[in-house]
Amino acid sequence: MKCFKRIVVLLLLVALSSSCSKIKEIHLTSWAVESYTPVGFRGLDLVLKLGVDNPALQFTVYDVEAELFRHGKSLGTFVTTEPVTVKPRMVAEYSLKGQARLSDGVSLFSVLALVKNFNMAEYSISYSASVKIRGGGHVTLRKKDVPLNELFEEVEI
Question: Tens digit of pLDDT for each residue in 77-101?
């Protein structure tokens, strides 16, 4: 579950960092798990509380999808269930709702064993996220096989 929280936070951060200079100043100020509900033995419904400092225009992040891999093998996926609209020129907290699911052939017990000896260098993520700027167009960001340790070098979580 901790990996999925980090993935969601990273996806939001990556979605926020586009070419506009003010957009590059957007950053997360905090994050926490607001609530979670187990869905059988294979998933979680999550609500994350994200603090965002946005000196730029209003934007909406939607259709976030991510897949976590360890040594090239898929462990699970995360999909947002509702868009998040970030207000302009303010620091505020937002709820990000989503669902995390284990991949076929991966058990809850095997994931718990991996968490015990977690080494970020062994993991990578592929993701896509759509961002719509208020009154304007949208862009879909896509990356494949991004090592988790590279993502965390720029983010303090």
Answer: 999 999 999 999 999 999 989 999 9
DSSP letters along 80-119, please?
A: ESS-EEEPSSEEEEEEEEEEEEEPTT--HHHHHHHHHT--
On whether the pTM is more than 0.90, the answer is no
Beta bridge partners of 128: 65, 142
Mode of pairing for the β-strands spanning 123-133 and 27-39: unpaired
Tell me the C-alpha to C-alpha distance, in Å, between residue 144 and each of 22, 36, 75, 120, 155. Answer: 26, 27, 15, 16, 19
DSSP string covering 8-40, please?
HHHHHHHHH--SSTTGGG-EEEEEEEEEEEEET
